[in-house]
Amino acid sequence: MTLSFPPITLPGDLKVGEAIGYPGGYDFASNGAVMQCRYTDWLLPHPVSASLSVVNAAATGMTFNANGLSMPVYATPYPGVGFAMMAGDPSQPLRVITHTGTTLVDTKHNKPTAWTLQGRVYLVATGPIASGPISASTVGRYVLSNVNIEGPGHASINFGDTVILPPQKPTCRVSTPSISMPLGQVPSRDFKDIGSHAGSVSRNITLDCGGGNGGILDVWITVTDQTEPGNRSDQLSLTRTSTARGVALQLLNGAQLISYGPDSSGVGNPNQWQVGSTANGTLTITLTSRYVKTASTIKPGTANGLASFTLSYR
């Protein structure tokens, strides 16, 4: 009998001792008889018992409680993932299954009998869990006592292959695809030496993020000078229609000057920087614009700049 688990996505807030995957556990049942007795009728009723035990799994010392039962948790070959099992004959209540064996049916009969089985398995977090595949394994052995048995003499309970997936990260949508940062009129006397700055205005780029299940999304950004796309400095070029001279624009995130890079979301893009990390919710990127003096003499006039931003999600 093989238990098939669908792919399991880990929640981001999973704690040791909690169920992994479906919190109500995974049911299993024999399709017909799990074992079949074939013999000539006995003249007198004969005592026969059926039992199920956990095999090939070490006890973790933990217990898992469900349906009023306290079940020992056993390790799987996959680090951080354990399991607990309850089972029974369909005519009997479910019972805790241990490595020492649990009697499910103890009866007398004198005719051939089909033995059936049903149960439930809980996957349990026993420690840190990394995403990846879980290989198939045999975890239970069903046996009959006091009868002559052909073949292997038992029926096996197996876990099928499955995969552990990392917590689902959110996806983000930019709700402010374009922002305007008017600095207004700034007198040239407000500048001192070359490199001094004047004027200031701040605006926010806002990301709305959702659809995650405990995962954290890292957000990176590259700002590109649209007038001089090859610009890799921290000074934004004036547009070609600007008439002022001796000044440039600067963008800051907090106190950090922003340098410009190619219009690309690729990992390691020049002058790409991390905005932060986010779960479901709103992520705000605050940018501040200002003028910077680039020459000893400033020629008054219009001084506009144009930049684009490209986001990268990891």
UniProtKB/TrEMBL annotation:
Gene Ontology BP, a term: cell adhesion involved in single-species biofilm formation
Annotated ranges, domain Fimbrial-type adhesion: 158-313
Family the entry assigns: Belongs to the fimbrial protein family.
InterPro entries tied to this protein: Adhesion_dom_fimbrial, Adhesion_dom_fimbrial_sf, Adhesion_dom_sf, Bact_Fimbrial_Adh_Pro
A GO cellular component annotation in the UniProt record: pilus
Organism from which the protein derives: Pseudomonas synxantha
Keywords of the record: Fimbrium, Signal
Protein name: Fimbrial protein
Chief localization: other
Location in or out of the cell: Fimbrium
Entry keyword annotation includes Signal: yes
